[in-house]
């Protein structure tokens, strides 16, 4: 059975990339979302909650630059989600990835073709995409988190 976070995230595939966007595509609109916006949107659809029952959507921020502050991003993720060991990822988990030499990109772990993949809003693809985790992506995993 597909993890609910993965199933919901797959509904965002094809939504165009838009920095600080929070809008899922529809039949009449291309939407627009970035990597954080995808996580926020999935959390909102599933009413995911962090410590103390706080809805994750309540902690959303949209005042960040294209290259966010890595330490701030890590601390916010650690406060809202449960950090897990790098080797313990499974579908539905969240990964923080190094891009351009800084941990600044987020993705949702999925199950694809019998292995692990990621679903993420990826600027070079100009959309939310899903693909297998190959060695290039695996080397960029900086931290892993799970919704509590």
Describe the overall structure.
This protein is of the alpha+beta class and 148 residues long. It contains four helices and eight strands; from the N terminus they run αββααβββββαβ. It has helices at residues 4-10, 35-46, 70-80, 135-138; strands spanning 22-23, 32-33, 82-84, 94-99, 102-112, 115-122, 127-132, 141-146. The chain has a six-stranded antiparallel beta sheet. Helix 1 packs across helix 2.
Short description, anyone?
With 148 residues, the chain is an alpha+beta fold. It has four helices and eight strands, in the order H-E-E-H-H-E-E-E-E-E-H-E.
Order of helices and strands: HEEHHEEEEEHE
Report the span from N to C terminus.
19 Å
Strand arrangement, major sheet: 3-8-4-5-6-7
Radius of gyration over all CA atoms, rounded: 14 Å
Share of helical residues: 10-25%
Q: Tally of extended strands?
A: 8
Q: Residue-averaged pLDDT, rounded?
A: 95
Which structural class matches the secondary elements? alpha+beta
Fraction of residues in β-strands: 25-35%
The largest pleated sheet is described as: 6 strands, antiparallel
**What overall form do the CA principal axes indicate?**
globular
The total count of helices amounts to 4
Low-confidence regions: none
């Amino acid at each position: 059975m597909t993890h609910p976070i993965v199933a919901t995230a797959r509904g965002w595939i094809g939504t165009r990339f838009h920095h600080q966007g929070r809008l899922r595509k529809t039949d009449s609109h291309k939407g627009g979302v970035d990597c954080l916006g995808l996580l926020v949107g999935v959390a909102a659809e599933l009413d995911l909650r962090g410590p103390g029952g706080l809805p994750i959507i309540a902690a959303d921020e949209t005042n960040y630059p294209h290259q966010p502050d890595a330490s701030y991003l890590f601390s916010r993720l650690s406060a809202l989600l449960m950090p897990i060991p790098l080797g313990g990822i499974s579908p539905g988990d969240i990964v923080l990835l190094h891009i351009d030499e800084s941990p600044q990109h987020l993705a949702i772990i999925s199950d694809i073709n019998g292995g692990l993949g990621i679903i993420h809003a990826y600027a070079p693809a100009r959309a939310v995409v899903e693909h297998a985790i190959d060695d290039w992506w695996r080397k960029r995993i900086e931290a892993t988190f799970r919704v509590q």
